[in-house]
Amino acid sequence: MDGLIVDSEPLWFEVEREFARARGGDFTPELARSCIGRGMAHTLEIMHDRFGFQVDLERDAAAIVDLFIGRVGDLALKPGFLELFDEARARGVPRALGSSSARRLVEATLGRFGLSESFEAVVTGDCVARPKPAPDIFLEAARRLGVAPAACVVLEDSLSGVEAARAAGMRVIAVPEHGAAGFESRADAVVADLHAARTLLSLT
Q1: pTM, 2 dp
Q2: What is the tens place of the pLDDT at every residue in 76-103?
Q3: Helix residue ranges per DSSP H, 91-173
Q4: Does 43 share its domain with 138?
Q5: Residues 6+ apart with CB under 8 A from 115
Q6: Do 146 and 188 lie in a common domain?
Q7: Left if phi > 0, otherwise alpha if psi is -120 to 50, otherwise beta: which for 7?
Q8: N or C terminus of the chain: which is more exposed, having fewer CB within 10 Å?
């Protein structure tokens, strides 16, 4: 969802930086990029290691999610998403959303765009034992769809998400936001945007 369906990375950076600054830390863009796709627990662990302030995972994750949800109206869909999604629906392709984010955040984001009932399955970070890059989220999504993992194609913008998809035995198309470095050796294909992903999928 984050960085692929919605252009949420700038907002995530703003709210996480606000959270860290209130506790004396400077959450830089470089640190933020290293946390993309790895879940809130990882982000808070990095903050604890770098800045030294104590972290309570449940309390602090809820605080960051509250900050994000309070600004969910600032989000925009990524270019090409609606066209790709509508084509998949028209072709009868079952669709699942797999996100490391908390369910209430995912629900708030989907609700912002009227997409709450558009996926046959929604799997969030609090549904599984391990976040990406472990395969749990994608395997659970396939199970709920009733589709074999090998028959699934994952669209991902983060390296940890690509690694999770590969670990699940799924094909993966990477749509990276910050260049293709590191993606070519891991993903089955790397494309510039969702318009290109749609073209590639239409040919399969």
Answers
A1: 0.85
A2: 999 999 999 999 999 999 999 999 888 9
A3: 103-112, 136-145, 159-167
A4: no
A5: 5
A6: yes
A7: beta
A8: C
Question: Does one domain contain both 52 and 85?
Answer: no
- The yes-or-no verdict on residue 33 having pLDDT over 80 is yes
Residues 155/190, Cβ–Cβ less than 8 Å: no
In the predicted structure, residue 37 carries a pLDDT above the cut 80: no
Please tell me the distance from the alpha carbon of residue 55 to that of residue 149, in angstroms, as a whole number. 36
- For 7-30, letters b (16+ CB in 10 Å) and e give bbbebbbbbbbebbeeeebebeee
How many residues comprise the chain?
204
Kindly report the backbone phi and psi dihedral angles of residue 17, in degrees, each rounded to the nearest multiple of 5, phi listed first. Answer: -70, -40
Boundary residue ending a domain (74, 95, 115): 74
